[in-house]
Amino acid sequence: MYVEMKEICKTFDGFQASDHVSFGIEKGQMAALLGPSGSGKTTILRMLAGLDMPDSGDIMINGILVNDLPGNKRGIGFVFQNYALFRYMTVADNIAFGLEVQKKGKAEIKERVEELLELISMEDLGKRYPHQLSGGQKQRVAFARALAPRPGLLLLDEPFAAIDAKVRRELRNWLKEMIGRVGITSIFVTHDQEEAMEVANQVIIINQGKIEQIGTPKEICFHPQTEFVSDFIETDRWIV
Questions:
Q1: Domains of the chain: which residue ranges?
Q2: What are the angstrom distances between the C-alpha of 111 and each of 43, 90, 102, 127?
Q3: In angstroms, rounded to a whole number, what is the distance separating the alpha carbons of residues 237 and 109?
C-alpha cells in the first residue's frame, strides 16, 4: 500500500471526528472519501496532509511513518476547495511557487512550468492573473501548482465544489484523465455520490467518524455492506 491509515482516532472538543479509521490505497489509485457533511472526511484529509495530528494510530506514506513529519516533508500536493491561488501572481508564477520554495534553479522552474501549462492545456495563458480565468481554469492551475514539486500523493478537498454545474462534469472527466496520465496516487473528499462513482477507482464511505464500507464504485452501489450505505447510496442516479 502506498497510503495507509491504521486505527486513527481524532477528537475535537469531545467530538469524535475519526473513530478507529483504517484503510489502504495502492500506488497510482484514485480514492474518494464520500459521506454526508460532518462525517469526518476532511479531518482524514487534513491528518494525511499534516495539518491536524491524530490522537492515536499511525499514518504511513510510501512505507514511512509520517505522524511526526510536518506536511512539507511528506511529499504531498494539496488542491483546496477555493483554489487558494495568489491573486497578484500570474498563472505561471502560481504554478512555480512550490518550486521556488524548494529553491530550484530558474531553468528547471521554467521547464517544469511550461510542461505543466501544456499538461493543463493553458500554454498561452501563463501571463494571465487569476481574476482573468474561469472557475474551471482556476482549478486546473491549482492542480498544476500542486503537481509542480512532483509529490507522491495528491490530496483534493471538494475539488469541484466551487465550479459552475455546467462545467463540473467536464472537469471531472479531465481530472480523471490527468490523474491517469500522471499516475499519481490521489485522494479526494466529496459529498457528491455521482462525482465519487465517476472519478474514483476506490470509494471509502465515511459516517460519524467511522468507515462504513470500502470498495469499487460497482461494489458500493450494488453490494452495500451496512444499512447506512444501503440508505445513503442512490443507485438510480447513474449507470455504473
A1: 1-75+159-240, 87-150
A2: 35, 16, 15, 15
A3: 44
pTM for this entry: 0.92
Region 95-123 average pLDDT: 95
User: What is the DSSP code string of the chain?
Assistant: --EEEEEEEEEETTEEEEEEEEEEE-TT-EEEEE-STTSSHHHHHHHHHTSS--SEEEEEETTEE-TTS-GGGTTEEEE-TT----TTS-HHHHHHHHHHHTT--HHHHHHHHHHHHHHTT-TT-TT--GGGS-HHHHHHHHHHHHHTT--SEEEEESTTTTS-HHHHHHHHHHHHHHHHHHT-EEEEEES-HHHHHHH-SEEEEEETTEEEEEE-HHHHHH---SHHHHHH--GGG---
In this prediction, residue 166 has a pLDDT band, given cuts at 50, 70 and 90, of: confident
The answer to whether 3 and 25 are in contact (CB under 8 A) is yes
Q: Please, what CATH class does the domain formed by 1-75+159-240 belong to?
A: alpha beta
What local confidence, expressed as pLDDT, does residue 218 receive?
A: 94
Name the DSSP letter for residue 118: H
Encode pLDDT of 222-238 as tens digits: 999 999 999 999 765 54
